[in-house]
Design goal:
Blueprint lengths: L3 E4 L9 H16 L3 E6 L9 H14 L8 E2 L4 H13 L3 E4 L3 H10 L6 E2 L2 E2 L8 H10 L4 E4 L1 H8 L6 E4 L9 E4 L9 E4 L6 H11 L4 E5 L5 H11 L6 E5 L19 H6 L4 H7 L4
Parallel strand pairs: 1-2, 2-3, 11-12
Antiparallel strand pairs: 4-7, 5-6, 7-10, 8-9
Helix pairs in contact: 7-8
Length: 287
């Protein structure tokens, strides 16, 4: 099997050291196997993604010395393809319209804090479809809704979670490695599409990995839990399952992981104060 991996940032801010470490890790893995390194721009959130951040991705990675295949797949140009995958799930009754607001969902979770669906990262949502009459009434009112994956229907379809596994060639946040039993229930009935965002991350990522022939997903441990629900989507859509290689997250002097929301120093700021690509690569362990 040929080795194909990718770096897939969302252009919602400028890249920082953590992004550089992940991109360099993916490129190094591809080079070690004589494989291919792809760049994919995951810009489906049109409310937060900006052209200047996307251009920053290209500028920063080129400055680091990375090379990637052209053309770059930009997810915002492929909503129709993702809708086709969603339509397959709709036709099979694997998703349902959820009209609840975020506030209503949080309130519902709070009323049953120890009920089914409580995951490792906090309580998550498990719901069910409305009756046809109630759904039709809300649609007639023009109420917004999200398409949620029904874990109950999905479990029936795949015959239980026991057959769902993935191979972890790196290490999860708790040391998970080797053949891992997928646990989609830890994610709950995830949103796969909503009105303001035509498709959600899980569906777009799974679809693109299969389309682009990604054989190995090299990414940070913060996305390890996402693998469980993505493995389920692969089974439901009859898509291949890549091997996964999650790497530790880079942290600052205070032990906090680098994050856009914490205003971590960006790569463009590093350049502005005279840090060279060679210096940064050495700092990150890529001499």
């Amino acid at each position: 099997m040929s080795f194909v991996t990718r770096f897939a940032p969302s252009p919602t801010g400028f890249l920082h050291r953590g992004h550089a470490f992940s991109a360099l890790s993916a490129q190094a893995a591809a080079r070690a196997e004589g494989g291919r390194f792809l760049l994919r721009v995951e810009d489906i959130d049109l409310t937060r993604c900006r052209p200047e951040y996307e251009q920053g991705v290209y500028d920063d990675l080129a400055w680091l010395g990375l090379e990637w295949e052209e053309p770059v797949r930009r997810q915002s140009a492929h909503f129709d393809e993702y809708r086709g995958a969603l339509d397959q799930l709709i036709a099979r009754g694997l998703v349902y319209r959820c009209f609840k607001t975020r506030r209503e969902i949080l309130d519902e979770i709070a009323r049953a804090p120890h009920g089914p669906g409580e995951g490792p990262e906090g309580a998550i949502y498990r719901g069910q479809p409305l009756s046809p009459a109630d759904e039709a009434a809300l649609l007639a009112e023009g109420r917004p809704y999200a398409w949620r994956l029904s874990l109950d229907r999905a479990q029936e379809t795949v015959g239980g979670w026991e057959a769902l596994t993935f191979t972890e060639a790196g290490e999860g946040p708790l040391g998970e490695t080797g053949v891992i039993q997928a646990r989609p229930e830890t994610a709950g009935d995830v949103v796969l599409a909503r009105k303001d965002v035509g498709v959600a991350y899980h569906l777009a990522a799974v679809f693109d990995d299969a389309l682009q022939g990604v054989s190995h997903v090299v990414r940070g441990q913060d996305l390890f839990e996402a693998t469980h629900i993505q493995r389920l989507l692969q089974a439901l859509l009859d898509l291949p399952t890549p091997r996964y290689r999650h790497h530790p997250l880079l942290t600052d002097a205070q032990g906090r992981r680098f994050a856009k929301r914490d205003r971590a120093e960006s790569l463009r700021e590093l350049r502005a104060r005279g840090v060279s690509p060679r210096e940064l690569r050495a700092e990150l362990g890529f001499d």
